[in-house]
Amino acid sequence: MDTNGSISNLIKLVYLKRKGQDVLAELIKSVCEYFDVIKNERLSEGDIRFLRYIASEAGVPQYFSMLNKFDNGVSEREYDVHLDMMPVLVEESALYTADSIQLHKYQMDVLSRFILGERNRYFLSASTSFGKTFLIFEIIRKMQYDNVCLVFPTIALLSENIQKIFSDPLYTWIKERYKIHTLSDADLQEHNNLFIFTPERYLSFLDKNADYHLDFFFVDEVYKIDNDFLVDDQQKENERDVAYRISTHIGLNQTTDCLLAGPYINIDLSDTEASIVKFLDWANITLLDYNRFEIVGKCEYQLETKKKIKLIDDDTMILFSSSSKRQKLKELVKELVRRNENAIIYCSSKTGVEKYAKLLLEEDGLPEISTDYFNPFYNHLSNLFQGGKGAHWIVTKALQRGVGVHHGLVPKYIQNEIIRLFNIGVLKVLVVTTTITEGVNTTAKNMVVLSHKKGRKGLKPFDAKNIEGRAGRFIHHYIGRVFILDNDFKTIVDSRDEFLRHKFFDSNIKKQPVDFPYVNDTYLSVEELTKKRWVDSMVQANSIPEGVITAYKTISVEDKYHLYETVKRLTDTEKYKIKHTISTYNGTGHISKAGIEVIFEKIKSIVPADGELLSLIERRREGSAYCTLTNMVAVFLKNGFVGAVNFYSQSHDIDESVRRSAKFVFNILRYQVVKYIGVFNLCYKYFLADEQGIVMDEVAGLDSIMMKMEYNASTILGRKASDAGASFRVIDYYDKLSKDPRTTAYDTLDQYEKSNADKIREIVNS
Questions:
Q1: CB-based contact 131:86 (threshold 8 Å)
Q2: Structural element, H or E, at residue 310
Q3: Which residues have CB under 8 Å from 662's CB, separation 6+?
Q4: Under a CB-based contact definition with an 8 Å cutoff, are residues 393 and 354 in contact?
Q5: Calpha distance 114→463 (Å, rounded)
Q6: CA distance from start to end of the chain
Q7: Which residue blocks in 225-264 are alpha helix, DSSP H?
Q8: For residue 24, how many other CB atoms are within 10 A of its CB?
Q9: Is 702 within 8 Å of 579 (Cβ atoms)?
Q10: Cβ atoms of residues 701 and 685 within 8 Å
Q11: Is the pLDDT of residue 47 over 60?
């Protein structure tokens, strides 16, 4: 790179900025590029003063402080502070919020908008490198909110933030000020409660605390309110976007201040008829658009048709021996690992991730890993399934060669550990799907893109930018590299952004009965209005208990009405089977399939017709008295996730067995089965209480079974361990510890599990 030309360009951009022209985005990009080139040069006193000056002008003084990470002599020397640098130092000091916490200018812009005594409600769209989650805690610190709720899209992100609060000294003040809750049946303090929930968990909390007022409500990855923007690989209505929309809608009604946040969300405020603009107006929310400020720069390399590329930052030439995508990938990864750099490889599907991981294992440039903090985890995975099959699982085999497999069907605690090993440099490669875009933070310098799709769907420009945004990490890199092996991906990145929509405020989007309570009649069709009024008449006629109506908000009142009518028609034999299942499980922990079968047969009428759940209810092996779902639930309740894998592995290879089990346990069982059994449980308990003339709390229900399904735990300690990212046997250990403080279960844990149990002990006991 021509450094003299770069300096001239920087000076020109600084001049234009001071003249009032809007060149900040271009200035940040140029400053990143210049720092990236000069970071390993031996720097003179003049260089240092200039670099500090341009970092300040870009609004990101951290660029300068990052220099001591590189071989440039900065960390080895002291230098004088000249008088002409005083304005720079003053500007830098204004960005500190605590002794060791400094924001960049654009984070401070957002923070300064939160003013004590005023109503502060914002929608923040910004690049992935902006530092949105970090900013949230500074907003809470400044505003000293009383009751706060943070909504994250996944249990994995919930776990990550809990662990951060309890392990990072920067966040000690949070656990000192607040009682932190992740369970929906939280034991609340009068003041200073901090809830860290998923959307589903927040809705469950509202079932028990309907009118609970929040002082601050944060929703991460808020684009998930729009089904079209979900990362799922199928184009259909997804139950997660229903939960996101409803939880956000209610939360905004029950809070004073709020921040909704997401990456690269495109909103045209001039289009007053757009549904998302109407939503912002309804909620009295102000848009903050920082999408164009890439705090970490990006450098793209299109490789699909090229035999060689030159890395701009250090003039290195990488040669490819073949035009094959597979061969180029192997040679690129080998070169990056040789340079002691790390990389994320994006694939379109879960099976694709595993296929490309196997491809990389063919390469001799990936040495076997063996360290004191890696071996216990590797040994744990090797022995996770019966017959030593864990050692043959692609996740385990790839880890031994420094490759992490990361997709939605890898158990969450394993995902978390893989990310940790990648971030500390033990693993050099991550092979991923779009799970990596859901708020996962890595230290990746390089992103390699193999596809322009997510499953069977094409990526949106939003998706593509989000994937590119994972290249380079603020405070670690000035520039992230994006290697593109599918030219259609580049076309998508450069294409026009699609606009986020909000179903509740768009009359052109068909509404489902579950939406009716939250949608103004203006946005409903005549047919939808007719159905809504019929549902309202059922409610007013007291045809269904109020407690059933208000709970499980992602199931429509219409479906609850039909289910309640079904429960009222239970025969004595069916009631006996259900009661026997409940009493047997509560007494011995064993499951009676007969009662479960009755329940699934009754909920069948309200389960979506196009989903896999209904298929599992209707499917059964020839000669079996029970449907496939009943048998799968029974296996899980008896032996957990590992037992489900062992069951499948009798007839499938270990990779397929894990994928099948994970899809069932973490997607279908945890999010769908629990919900439908839950609403059945409410209808059942209300009906029996009414029939027997007793209060509902006196009716034994399915609560313990549901808890086991959702958390793989039956006690508060076990459930907290589950939320904190515990492995399966560690959850079981805390369950046993809760019941018997003298348990010897800890001694049966392997070395990794003991470390895992010790690491989360403070969280579990909080």
A1: no
A2: strand 308-310
A3: 408, 409, 410, 411, 641
A4: no
A5: 30
A6: 54
A7: 239-253
A8: 18
A9: no
A10: yes
A11: yes
**Residue 221 token pair:** 């990855």
* Helix/strand number for the chain, H first, E second: 33, 19
Distance CA 111, CA 259 (A): 11
The amino acid that residue 282 corresponds to is W
Amino acid, res. 524:
L
Cα dihedral 417, 422, 423, 424 in deg (nearest 10): 90
Report the DSSP pairing between strands 343-346 and 403-406.
unpaired
| For residues 201-220, average pLDDT | 95
Q: How far apart are CA 597 and CA 626, in angstroms?
A: 6
Q: Decide: 130 and 61 in contact? Cβ < 8 Å.
A: no
- Tens digits of per-residue pLDDT, 347-403? 999 999 999 999 999 877 788 898 888 999 999 999 999 999 999 999 999 999 999
334-342's contacts with Cβ under 8 Å and 24+ in sequence apart are 334/363, 334/365, 334/366, 336/428, 336/446, 337/365, 337/366, 337/402, 337/428, 337/429, 338/365, 341/428, 341/445, 341/446, 342/422, 342/425, 342/427, 342/428, 342/429, 342/430, 342/443, 342/444, 342/445, 342/446
Instruction: State yes or no: pLDDT of 754 exceeds 80.
Output: yes
Assigned token pair, 142: 């400044």
Q: What is the amino acid identity at position 722?
A: S
CA distance 312 to 301: 10
Q: If you compute the radius of gyration of the chain from its CA atoms, what whole number of angstroms results?
A: 27
Q: How much of the chain, in percent, has pLDDT values that exceed 90?
A: 79
Query: What mean pLDDT value characterizes the chain?
Result: 92
For residues 90, 92, 95, 97, the Cα torsion angle rounded to the nearest 10 degrees is -80
For the chain, helix, strand, coil in percent to 5 are 55, 10, 35
Q: Specify burial of residue 714 (Cβ count, 10 A radius: 0-12, 13-18, 19+).
A: buried
pTM for the full predicted model: 0.94
Q: At what angle do helices 674-692 and 703-711 cross, to 10 degrees?
A: 170
**What gap in Å lies between CA 74 and CA 117, rounded to an integer?**
44
Would you state the structure tokens that stand for residue 541, as one six-digit string?
A: 């006629």
Helix or strand (DSSP H, E) at 403: strand 403-406
User: From CA 216, how far away is CA 144, in angstroms rounded?
Assistant: 10
Q: For 740, how many CA atoms within 13 A lie in the half-sphere containing its CB? A: 8
Pick from 716, 641, 738, 763: nearest CA to 158 = 763
pLDDT (tens digit per residue) in 643-663:
999 999 999 999 999 999 999
User: Distance between CA 195 and CA 631 in Å, rounded?
Assistant: 35
Residue 234 pLDDT: 42
Q: For the chain, what is the largest distance between any 2 Cα atoms, rounded to a whole number of angstroms?
A: 89
Beta strands in 50-147 (DSSP E): 96-98, 101-102, 121-126
